[in-house]
Structures are given as structure tokens and as C-alpha cells.
Amino acid sequence: MLRLSNVSASYGQVSALKGLDLFIGAGEAVALIGSNGAGKSTTLKVISGLVRPNGGTVEFLGEPITGMRPEQIVERGIIHVPEGRRIFPKLSVEQNLEVGAYSQRAQSRKRTIRDEVYQLFPRLHERRRQMGGSLSGGEQQMLAFGRAMMAQPQLLLLDEPSLGLAPIIVEEVARAIAHFRAGGVTVLLVEQNAELALTIASRGYVLETGTITLSGTSGQLLENPEVWASYLGHE
Ligand code: ATP
């Protein structure tokens, strides 16, 4: 479904990705793990068109999307939930959800999906008239998910969905991701919390200073001593 081949990207003189290769099949949930500054967020930004790569190709459903504008990529069904949620604080919960359905592809089943979001997150229904900015961190993460659902993604890019959330809310995050997958959505998940990521995903890639150094099934990575030493067993 998605293939990155030999992708490189930089910010001015700072090289963030150096010949990255990555593949995701339809319906898979794949984790991208790595330490701070490894290039995880940049990888997602290259896929969603927020960062233009200076080498390599990105293919989605067999077609090149390298260098396309973010709104063209959204129309193809790739939805990016950035780190730090980025909901609209001055819009109500309901308006935030509406914004998620702005693209043409999302218009048709808007109402049905909004009901589905409210069913999955009753909290959002209770607070639908409240300003986004007045929600707790966990509720804002749910709203960010709800907004992504409204966009009817084929491929969902999640950047650190568990960041700063209490363990009980993290469980809800995992449940929401499972809900997307059950609906046939393919997921690429970036997480500092490698254990969580590899529990949610069935396969993973390890990214170090802009290149993939290791990949395997979640089971293989969870048992790998190098992964254990660098990313697991300590928080
Ligand atoms: P984190 O988990 O800390 O967000 P990350 O793995 O997502 O890390 P990136 O955010 O992709 O890493 O950053 C990769 C490299 O690019 C880092 O060295 C970072 O300092 C640099 N970088 C990221 N964004 C910018 C920017 N807007 N301008 C300049 N350098 C940047």
C-alpha cells in the first residue's frame, strides 16, 4: 500500500532522513520506533507532504505521491494526526469534528461517521458544545482521533498518540486504534513508548539517525536484545 524507497530529507544543513526504505501492506499496523531526533516525525511528514524529500520516492497504492501538496495527499486518503494533537482550541468539539470532514472524499458519510465517533467516545458527545481547548489532554487526543475518523482515512499516520497521557487513557488510545483497524484502515504509528507501539502493531521498524537499522514482527523486535537495551525495559 505504501512504499518509501531511498528517501532522504533535510532541514537546511540538518540531514533528518538518509536513504530510508519502508513498506506497509494494506490493513497492516506498523510501528516506527526510535529515540529522540531519529527522524520519526519527519518520516510521517514526508508521507503526508508536509516535508518535501530531497531524494527517493514515496508510492501509495502503486502511484508516486512524492512532492505532492498535503491537500492532494489528504484527498487520496492519507491522514496525519501530528504530535501534540493540534485541535482547534477556539472551536467546539463538534466543529472540530466537522473540520475533519472538509475534504471531498469525506463528505458523503459525514453524519454516520460523526455518530460512530460519539459512540466510540461518549465523552466527546457529552462535551460536543464545549471549546476544544477546554478539554483534558486525553480528551483532546480522542478528539484528534475523532477528527481523523471523520476524514475517512485509508492510511492513518499517528505521531506519538500516547505522549503525556495517563495509563488508563493510553488503553483508550489503543482501543481507538483497534477500531480503525477493524474498519480496514492501515496504520503507521510513531511512538517513544516502544512497548505500547509493538503491542498495537504487528510489525515494526527501528529508525536510528535517519535510516532503518532493524525491522521485524513485533514478537521478534520485543525479543531482540538490542531493541530491549535501547528502547524497552526502561522508561
Ligand atoms: P522526536 O521523538 O524527538 O520528535 P523524531 O524521531 O520524531 O524525534 P524528527 O522530529 O523527525 O525526529 O527530527 C529529525 C531531525 O531533524 C532532528 O535532528 C531534528 O532536530 C531535526 N529537525 C526536525 N524538525 C526540524 C525543523 N523544523 N528545523 C530544523 N531541524 C529539524
From TrEMBL:
Name assigned to this protein: ABC transporter ATP-binding protein
Gene3D superfamilies, A to Z: P-loop containing nucleotide triphosphate hydrolases
InterPro entries: AAA+_ATPase (IPR003593), ABC_transporter-like_ATP-bd (IPR003439), ABC_transporter-like_CS (IPR017871), BCAA_Transport_ATP-bd_LivF (IPR052156), P-loop_NTPase (IPR027417)
One GO MF term: ATP binding
Pfam families associated with the record: ABC_tran
UniProt similarity note: Belongs to the ABC transporter superfamily.
Protein keywords: Amino-acid transport, ATP-binding, Nucleotide-binding, Transport
Domain ABC transporter intervals: 2-234
Organism: Terrihabitans rhizophilus
Record SUPFAM superfamilies: P-loop containing nucleoside triphosphate hydrolases
Superkingdom: Bacteria
Alphabetized CDD domains for the sequence: ABC_TM1139_LivF_branched
